[in-house]
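Incident review: delayed structure delivery

Summary: a single-chain prediction request sat in the queue longer than the usual turnaround. Root cause was a stuck worker, restarted by the on-call engineer. No data loss occurred. The affected request and its eventual output are reproduced below so the record is complete for anyone auditing the incident later.

Affected input:
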Amino acid sequence: MPLPVWARAHGAPLFPANIRTTPEEFDVTEELGFDFDGAGEHDYLYVEKTGANTEWVARQLARFAEVPARDVGYSGMKDRHAVTRQWFSVPRWNAPVWSKLDIEGVSVLELERHSRKLRRGAHKSNRFRIIVRGELPQSTVLEYGLALIRDSGVPNYFGPQRFGRNAANLELANSWSAGKRLAKHKRSIAISCTRSFLFNEYLHARVLDGTWNRILRGDVANLDGTGSVFDVGEVDDTLVRRCAEMDIHPAGVLCGDGAVPADFPEGHDNWRKALFKARVKAGHRSLRLRVDDLQWRRDERCLRLEFRLGRGAFATSVLRELASVASQACL
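Output delivered after worker restart:
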């Protein structure tokens, strides 16, 4: 089942491009955003991995430390086909000697100690260093497109990674919503895929009508860089100014029990009913993604990008506003 082509905010892509020609050309560094207390029962490992997914690494760490895999913590899933650095927490009940850890493609860069397990979504941001290859447009055109992304942000779509290879997770979502019993992990993937797809559909409609970056009466607004939201009544000059300055953003519903968009997409009522039945807690997500510290350097046939995104954001949602991107590896 192919994914829809969701609307772009800044016009047609400027050029066709390739990413992930090698893992080293897609580099991700997690920025945790809090200090360690130096005590407690958890070792915190700052791990660099190449060609490995986060869950697999977590299982290997659990096996080495002789603890249940469920007790290993990490803040977010990082790309497999990339070089990534992120934190894991592992209970130190059995006093593992981490200098003896030997996992192909995995290195421990730092070791700290903390009193609490690392929870999902606990990190502050991710810094990306990406090489984009292709026939680049004229410098003035490219500079304009990059400046537009830097100054205006991009629609905060969930990236294709969320929907699996060839969007296979959509079939999993359909099976789950039809009542098929799934393993806990696959059920979680199905729910996440369902909510992400419905959010993207809502955001697509807001991009088409030009309101993805504007606060409207009756919206929910998100405070930039946080999970805080508030209801919007009348839109006054202060809200307009704060939105223009990207201090706040319009937010869309992450569908759950009792909460769906007013204009819920047709053809997905089975998903809505399944989310309600499962008592999935509703949430919100910003419609606009702020792209911080965007820097670029142009070579003859590639563009070197560096930028920072808040947790839960996808670099592919930034890149799609600039180029028609193909990956040398499955996302």
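Verification: Residues 6 and 38 are 46 Å apart (CA to CA).
Action items: add queue-age alerting; document worker restart procedure.
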